[in-house]
Structures are given as C-alpha cells and as structure tokens.
C-alpha cells in the first residue's frame, strides 16, 4: 500500500507510504484519490487528515518515474490529485513534517488547512532540475506567502524551515505549528474535528486558489527580479521562467495561471538543460552504487582518520574530515612540514571566518579535532589512513610498509596517488584487501570529486566504507579501476594533446581557451595548465617518453617548461601574469615561440574554427572514455559524466561529455573523428573510433 487509510473516531487518516520519501508516483496518486473517495462516501467520517509515514510528508515527484514520462503522465496526474483534495466535501487537513517539497508541497497547498511540525523543511526545488513547479506551486505559494517570499523560494529551490515560515507576518501557509514533532498527529486530528464542526453548516471550505495574489509595485518588481535572476541563471532558462510564472499568478485568474504554468513546465521538460540536469540527478545516485557491492555488504566503522603528508593535498584532505567532525592525526617527516601544513589549514579556516562562512566557535571545534605527529605509532588506532606524500613509488613503498607494521587489523589504507599503480602500492603490504585509492582533486577541501580506485584485491567492504565516508564528507565518489590516470586524468591527457596539436597547426593558446570557455568549460586547457602548474604535465611526459615512446605530442609545452614558465606560481606560463594577479595576459614571447616551433615542423599555419577546437577537445575525451568503458575502468557512462562535471569544470547544462556526445548523435561524433584522422598533423591512430563507439553507432544506441 502506498497510501494507507484508517479511520480514527470521526476522522479519516490518509498516510502516504512510499519509502524513502513518499514520492508521488502513480500508485501513490491512485492511493490518495481512492482514499479521498472512500472518506467522502463514509457517513461516519467528518474530516480527513493527510500525512506521510516515515521520514517525510512527501519529497515530491517519484524519481523512479523521471525517465518514464508515460507513467508520470498517467491519470490521476498530480494536478488531478490536488483537484480531488480541493473538491473534497469534507475538510482536508495536511499534516506535514520532516520534508515537504516539490509536488509534496503542491499537494499540501491543495488542502483546506495545513498544520506543520516544527523543523519541517519546506521547498519547491524544481528549478534545480531545470524546471518550474508544474502542479500549481507557482500559483498557490505566492497566495499564502506573498509574492516576494514565494519567488525567492521558487527561484532558489532552497528549503526553508517551517518555524521561519510560520512566523512570517500575514502568512497563510500554515494554520498551525504543532508544539513538537511528536504531537503533530494528535493536534492535526483535533484541528480536523474543530474545522469539521465549523463547517457542519455546509459553509464553503477555504481554498488557496481563492486568495488574492498581488504585488504593490507589480511591473517594476518583476522587471527587477527578472534582471537579477537573468544575471545569475547564465545558461539555464528555468530561473527566469520562475519569475514569469509567479508574475502570471498576479495577472491572471487562477485557472488561467495554472494552465500557463503547466505550459511553461512542459516546454522546460524538453529543453536540453533540463534533460542534462535530470541526467546528472540520476547519475549522481547511480555513481554511489557499485554493481557487485550490494547493500548486504556491511561497511567498516570509521571514527578516526590518519593523513600522511601535510602538503598541498594532505592539508585539504584533513580539512574534509575535520569539517565532518571526524578527528584527524596528520603525520609528517619533519616538524617544519607539520607546522606549515597546520598553518595552511588555519589560514583557510580563518579566511572562511572572515567571510562569515564559518563561525569562530566552529573553527575552534574543528582545529581541536586535529592532532599532529612525527611518529607512526600514533596512527595505531586510526580506522582509515590516507597517504598524500610525494608522487614517487619508492616513497610510497616506505610509507605503506610502515603502515602495514603499525595500523590495526581492519584499518583501511588509502593512497591519494594520481598516477601510480594502486595494485603495486597494495603489494607493499601483507593486506592488499585493505588498500584502496582515494584520489582527491586540488584544492581537496573544495573540489567535489573523489575517484575511488579499486585495486585487484580491494575488499568489497572497504569499497562500501569509502563510498559511505565520501558521502559524509560531501564528495561525489566515482569508482575507477586501476590504470594510468584513472578515469579523469587518462582522458585529460588526450584533451591536452589535441590542444597542443592545434597550436602547431595555427591556433594561439588564447584562441583555444576562448573557444572551449565559450562552450562552457570553466577554464581552457592553457589557463588551466598555468593554474595547476605546467611542470606537472612535463614530468608525466618525461615518464611517458620512456614508457610509451610511440605517443605523439606537440613539443610546445616542453619548450615552455624549458623556459621555466610553469604558470601562475612562476609569474609566467602560456600567459604573462602581473605580480600578485591572476589575469592571463597573452604573451608575445610564447606566441613567437609557438610560431617558431610551427615553422621548424614545416607546418603552414591555417585558421582553425572555434567549432573544430571544441570538437577536437571534447571528442578526444569521448573517444578515450569509450576505451575506458570497454576496459572496465569505469562501470557506466554516467560515472564518466560525473567525473567531468565535478572534477574538470565540464559545463553542467551539457550533462557531461558522454551525455553531450549522445545528444550530438554518436554517428556524427564518429564521422568527425574519421575526418580528424585525415589531418597529417594530428594523431591518426587515436582518432580511430573506439570499438564500443563503433558498436553503438551500428546499433543506433547511446552511451547513456
Ligand atoms: P606536496 O609536495 O605538496 O606534499 C607532499 C608532502 O608529503 C610534503 O609535505 C612532504 O614533506 C610529505 N612527505 C614526503 N615524504 C613523506 C613521508 N615519507 N612520510 C610523511 N610525509 C612525507 O605534494 P601534493 O601535491 O600534496 O601531492 C601528494 C600526493 O597527492 C601525490 O601522490 C600526488 O600525486 C597526489 N595528488 C596531487 C594533486 C595535486 O594537484 N597536487 C591532485 C591529486 C593527487
């Protein structure tokens, strides 16, 4: 049963029961309408209470119906359910608690009366999926909260506490706030009995739709709101449409407004931006599921964490755990290195306190959770130990052998290596089943992505634990198999190679950066190189020259590094930088160096279009990703999208590289690759479409 029906005295109680959050899927919608009918036909029932079981009143639409439009649109659709609530001859009291969001709030707004438990999270979050509320939310919420409060909630999608809303002067959202969450149902039933008595004479029941909806400054206010929202929404159409819909509520009769809201909603559903956001919503959930690690696998307990190395990454990694209230012991080889690491953490927190993002007492609490040591014995009780020392296998060997000696049985030993073989690292210990890669991205306290590298021997419960802890520290964890560069960096290498070839052929760094930034990347490859340090790629290419001498590269990046132009940290890279500033200024010297190199290769420069730049950069990611899927390094295409969206600044509204390729059409993508393969200055063998891509094209299928 997805909606339970019970009669308590003269009140019928309808309880949504569709775990985890009482999503309003087809069965639940039928359950509600059936129960309403039953209550209305039962002469013993005088009033109805509508509530939710478990940890929500209702979280809104059932996400399982997201990609099944026919089921989502099967009558009774939510609009019809709400109409049935409004039309109930007996008063309906919505008793909301915990979470009342999206369609759940729209449903409650159809009730004649509403009572909320304190601490209930109230929101219309549809905008986060590229939509506006589509079942009356934009028409009813302004009528009960006033235009401005309602619009703020609808445009931001953020939850507001019921206590705050109930305290707003003149609000009509809640008729009552229960004394405690526990007393909600008793108070709801009492309210139902009271209003039933008031309307025993057959007087009309109050409906939100009948309330007035006006803003004193009308046009001026909406113009102002539209301008504000336009600036913030950038490539997303939905936020501005939220403004339109609320304005409609002030200008049209209720039913006309409802129809117009529905039209906007349906049109938004078809936009690529909305489809991309819905894809990401599902992809994020899918990423946390590992095909062969079921819910029967019990994670290990992680109460304390050790971090080895207090450098760039170690400090940021430690902050993640401190932020989540988990004690950290940080180990280094020298006291100075520890002091430097702690000073950086403090500086980071102090900047947050200054900006008002962190309360001073919270800062103190977090710092109190941090211990430092030079002695491995202090890690003997740690449940999880993350190594972030120099990227040299010899150093990793020393560390892991030492950890094997001191760590308690069952402790998880993780490496933050970005390129080294996790299986080799695991083999330094006598417990390879406890070893896993936890590849954070810089700055580790900010970046959302965590690649969880599954070694050959990594135990399932280790994976389950790391995925769980990732959630706790608010990371998006994606599982990768062991290979050079894992998912993200293996792909970015191909992207960087293409960027280099295009310089050889006639482009400038600024042209390449501009084109891909216009496509929506947060930063082009050359500005990115200057930020991260061009010397990192240089070191990798030197190693590659030994391991894979056949791999073709443009030599411009090496020439740049030979000049000591490592990027922002040396005040010069692909671009020039003024002291203390981060603005990239095109460099005459670099552009001349590129021209000279081009001439030495005997290449006649040609004009490269922005479209070619974007296609070569993005499709290089796609082709390598297809190999990654084939090799089983990633288990699904949507995981690759998550890696690029959360770790590499791929434009959100395009849904990730795989989803973008699906949208362009894999046939078109493969045809472009074949064209690129004919370019003598590129790497023809790379552009051979990956077998998986060819197969999907032949079958007319997509990655996602
Ligand atoms: P870093 O050079 O800033 O810090 C390394 C720290 O480890 C230094 O403070 C050093 O004193 C300490 N250390 C060295 N040997 C040690 C030992 N035997 N015992 C204890 N401490 C020792 O390096 P960074 O950038 O923090 O990199 C650390 C690891 O993280 C490397 O494996 C790197 O590949 C990886 N990584 C780095 C990223 C980055 O953007 N910097 C991104 C993702 C991973």
UniProtKB/TrEMBL annotation:
Its main location: other. Residues 485-577, 613-701 form the 3-hydroxyacyl-CoA dehydrogenase C-terminal domain. Residues 304-480 form the 3-hydroxyacyl-CoA dehydrogenase NAD binding domain. Pathway: Lipid metabolism; fatty acid beta-oxidation. Keywords: Fatty acid metabolism, Isomerase, Lipid degradation, Lipid metabolism, Lyase, Multifunctional enzyme, NAD, Oxidoreductase, Peroxisome. It is found in: Peroxisome. InterPro entries: 3-OHacyl-CoA_DH_NAD-bd, 3HC_DH_C, 6-PGluconate_DH-like_C_sf, ClpP/crotonase-like_dom_sf, Enoyl-CoA_hydra/iso, NAD(P)-bd_dom_sf. It catalyses: a (3S)-3-hydroxyacyl-CoA + NAD(+) = a 3-oxoacyl-CoA + NADH + H(+). This is 3-hydroxyacyl-CoA dehydrogenase NAD-binding domain-containing protein. It comes from Ottowia flava. The lineage of its organism: Bacteria, Pseudomonadati, Pseudomonadota, Betaproteobacteria, Burkholderiales.
């Amino acid at each position: 049963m997805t909606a339970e029906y019970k009669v308590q005295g003269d009140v019928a109680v309808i309880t949504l029961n569709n775990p985890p959050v009482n999503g309003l899927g087809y069965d639940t919608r039928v359950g509600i309408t059936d129960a309403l009918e039953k209550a209305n036909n039962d002469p013993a029932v005088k009033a109805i209470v509508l509530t939710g079981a478990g940890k929500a009143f209702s979280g809104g639409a059932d996400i399982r119906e997201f990609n099944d439009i026919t089921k989502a649109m099967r009558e009774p659709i939510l609009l019809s359910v709400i109409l049935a609530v409004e039309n109930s001859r007996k008063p309906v009291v919505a008793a909301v608690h915990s979470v009342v969001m999206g369609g759940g709030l729209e449903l409650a707004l159809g009730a004649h009366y509403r009572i909320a438990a304190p601490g209930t999270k109230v929101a219309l979050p549809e905008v986060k999926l590229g939509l506006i509320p589509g079942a009356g939310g934009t028409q009813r919420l302004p009528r009960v909260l006033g235009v401005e409060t309602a619009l703020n909630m609808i445009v931001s999608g953020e939850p507001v506490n019921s206590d705050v809303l109930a305290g707003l002067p003149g609000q009509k959202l809640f008729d009552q706030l229960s004394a405690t969450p526990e007393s909600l149902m008793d108070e709801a039933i009492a309210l139902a009995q009271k209003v039933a008595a008031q309307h025993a004479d057959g007087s009309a029941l109050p409906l939100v739709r009948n309330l007035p909806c006006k803003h004193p400054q009308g046009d001026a206010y909406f113009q102002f709101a539209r301008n504000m929202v336009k600036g913030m929404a950038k490539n997303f159409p939905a936020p501005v449409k939220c403004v339109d819909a609320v304005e409609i509520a002030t200008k049209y009769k209720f039913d006309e407004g409802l129809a117009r809201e529905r039209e906007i909603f349906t049109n938004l559903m078809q936009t690529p931006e909305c489809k991309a956001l819905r894809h990401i919503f599902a992809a994020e959930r899918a990423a946390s599921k590992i095909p062969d690690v079921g819910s029967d696998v019990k994670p290990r307990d992680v109460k304390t964490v050790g971090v080895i190395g207090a450098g760039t990454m170690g400090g940021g990694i430690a902050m993640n755990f401190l932020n989540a209230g988990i004690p950290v012991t940080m180990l280094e080889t020298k006291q100075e290195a520890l002091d430097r690491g702690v000073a950086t953490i403090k500086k980071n927190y102090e900047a947050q306190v200054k900006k008002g993002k962190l309360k001073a007492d919270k800062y103190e609490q977090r710092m109190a959770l941090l211990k430092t040591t030079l002695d491995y014995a202090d890690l003997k009780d740690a449940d999880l130990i993350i190594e972030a020392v120099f990227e040299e296998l010899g150093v990793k060997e020393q560390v892991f052998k030492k950890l094997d000696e001191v760590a308690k049985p069952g402790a998880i030993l993780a490496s933050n290596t970005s390129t080294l073989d996790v299986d080799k690292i695991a083999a330094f210990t006598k417990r390879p089943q406890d070893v896993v890669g936890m590849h954070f991205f810089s700055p580790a306290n900010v970046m959302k992505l965590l690649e969880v590298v599954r070694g050959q021997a990594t135990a399932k419960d280790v994976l389950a634990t790391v995925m769980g802890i990732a959630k706790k520290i608010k990371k998006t964890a994606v599982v990768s198999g062991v290979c050079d560069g894992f998912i993200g960096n293996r792909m970015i290498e191909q992207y960087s190679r293409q960027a280099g070839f295009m310089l050889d052929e006639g482009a400038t760094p600024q042209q390449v950066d501009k084109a891909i930034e216009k496509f929506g990347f947060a930063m082009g490859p050359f500005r990115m190189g200057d930020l991260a340090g061009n010397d990192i790629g240089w070191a990798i290419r030197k190693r590659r020259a030994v391991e894979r001498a056949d791999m073709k590269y443009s030599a411009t990046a090496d020439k740049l590094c030979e000049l000591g132009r490592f990027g922002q940290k040396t005040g010069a890279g692909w671009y020039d930088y003024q002291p203390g500033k981060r603005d990239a200024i095109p460099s005459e010297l670099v552009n001349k160096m590129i021209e000279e190199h081009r001439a030495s290769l005997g290449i006649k420069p040609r004009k490269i279009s922005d479209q070619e730049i974007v296609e070569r950069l993005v499709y290089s990611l796609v082709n390598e990703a297809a190999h990654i899927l084939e090799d089983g390094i990633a288990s699904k295409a949507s995981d690759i999208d998550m890696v690029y969206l959360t770790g590499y600044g791929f434009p959100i509204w395009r849904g990730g590289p795989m989803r973008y390729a699906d949208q362009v059409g894999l046939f078109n993508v493969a045809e472009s690759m074949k064209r690129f393969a004919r370019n003598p200055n590129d790497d023809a063998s790379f552009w051979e479409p990956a077998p998986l891509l060819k197969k999907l094209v032949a079958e007319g299928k997509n990655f996602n």
